[in-house]
TrEMBL record:
It is a multi-pass membrane protein. NCBIfam families: R_switched_YjbE (TIGR03717). The chain crosses the membrane at residues 6-34, 46-66, 141-162, 169-187, 207-225. The keyword Ribonucleoprotein does not apply. Belongs to the TerC family. This is TerC family protein. InterPro entries: Integral_membrane_TerC (IPR005496), Integral_membrane_YjbE (IPR022301). GO terms for cellular component: membrane. It comes from the Bacteria. Its main location: membrane. Keywords: Membrane, Transmembrane, Transmembrane helix.
Length: 243
């Protein structure tokens, strides 16, 4: 790995941003899973749960990276990324973590963290694999590991700060959704089934596809979010003034 390369740090930045935006719920899951543990064991539950979840995620990403070389699978991954990016721009559902069980036993709590993270991390895996393959070259796996390790302390110890920043500056979430669209657009035109047809226009077609993907997520996500808010307002009209 060339730690002095701007491309390397750009890819690390993308992976960290993706993991924070899509994995910000991890801190909430950990807190809910370990809340019944004794204070002395709570830190152990957080550490071991996080280590197990990140290790499992790295294995999933390694598997995803190998699959992305199969024709048409990048196209499928790109469609999923578009959906994930659009979903990121939609209003959040309330009580999204109501089904996370807690336990007063350390390893049960650790298992809960790992299983919940596995279920919630499919979007992370697809997005991070796409970012690493687009920018990592022959250093995809070390890049993924380094990016995830950098994001772990940020998620665990800085989650509350991140949430406050996102609430105060919603543009962060919007840019994150557009980043996923950017990656999805690049994935589509670098699929083995597509590259032979667009080879004469490379690399310009990749830049165009990436920009178009970012704009598509922004437009569709904004329109869908506006419609969801309108429906919510229609279901729960504001009370008349003076009541």
């Amino acid at each position: 790995m060339d730690f002095t390369s701007p491309a390397f740090w750009l890819a690390v930045g993308q992976i960290v941003l993706i993991d924070i935006l899509l994995g910000g719920d991890n801190a909430v899951v950990i807190a809910l899973a370990v809340r019944k543990l004794d204070p002395a064991k709570r830190r152990q539950g957080i550490v071991w749960g996080t280590v197990g979840a990140i290790g499992l995620r790295i294995l999933l990403i390694v598997f995803a990276l190998s699959l992305l070389s199969v024709p048409y699978l990048k196209l499928v991954g790109a469609v999923l990324l578009f959906w994930i990016g659009i979903k990121l721009l939609l209003p959040e559902e309330e009580d999204a973590h109501g089904n996370i069980a807690s336990s007063d036993r350390l390893w049960v709590a650790v298992r809960t963290v790992i299983i919940a993270d596995l279920v919630m991390s499919i979007d992370n895996v697809i997005a991070i694999a796409g970012a690493a393959q687009a920018a990592g070259g022959e250093h995809e796996i070390p890049l993924v590991v380094f990016g995830l390790l950098v994001s772990v302390p940020i998620i665990i110890w800085g989650s509350q700060l991140i949430i406050r920043l996102m609430d105060r500056f919603p543009i962060i979430i919007t840019l994150g959704g557009m980043l996923l669209g950017w990656i999805a657009g690049g994935m589509m035109v670098t699929d083995p089934a597509v590259t032979e047809h667009v080879a004469p226009w490379q690399p310009h077609i990749k830049w165009i596809a990436e920009a178009a993907g970012a704009v598509l997520v922004l437009l569709v996500g904004s329109i869908a979010a506006r419609r969801m808010r309108s429906r919510a307002a229609a279901r729960n009209p504001a009370p008349p003034a003076g009541h």
